[in-house]
Amino acid sequence: MKNDILMLHLLKHPLLTHKLSILRRKETPAKEFRETLEEISALMAFEITRDLPVKDVTIETPMGICHTQELEMGVILIPILRAGLGMVGGISNLIPSASVGHIGMYRDHDTLEPKTYYSKFPNNMADAVVMVLDPMLATGGSSSAAIQFVKDQGAKSIKLVCIIGAPEGVSRIMKDHPDIQIYLAGMDEKLNDIGYIMPGLGDAGDRLFGTN
Question: Which fold has domain 2-53+70-209?
């Protein structure tokens, strides 16, 4: 139980709760949905980056010498296409030096298993903190496959960042990847019989891009 608690980070903040309510509301138009998703990602970024490794440096200010710290490792954002793209802006605004890779996956509607159709990664995966981004952690199949993909590329320090999760998805990641930290802005009740999070917010990709 202790390891599970350390592995799962359920972020609590009034602004997160308020903005998550905007995402959930079915009347929220695509433009507002995109803006709010980016804002939530930015708010989450402060907690996600809390444990990033730093190194001691000495710099010169206009007034003299300063002994301070800078990030020791690079940061790579890996959004799972399509919906993960909506989280990149909020985090990269905070970390403009972050590189961005991409992995394209879709869920087979019959088997609910993930299928990969595209991947492109930076070449310094082993030396960076890698954040896999996907708004919804539903069955956990796509996120688990994406994590394995980045591991196969040499990534060693990986965080899974999602907006909403279901217990089934969290359990899947904990089982498949017990070394990965999971960050959520909300934990919902369950999955329905077609693998959607309840009460959730619907299909994040469709709502993000205004498609059906």
Answer: Rossmann fold (3.40.50)
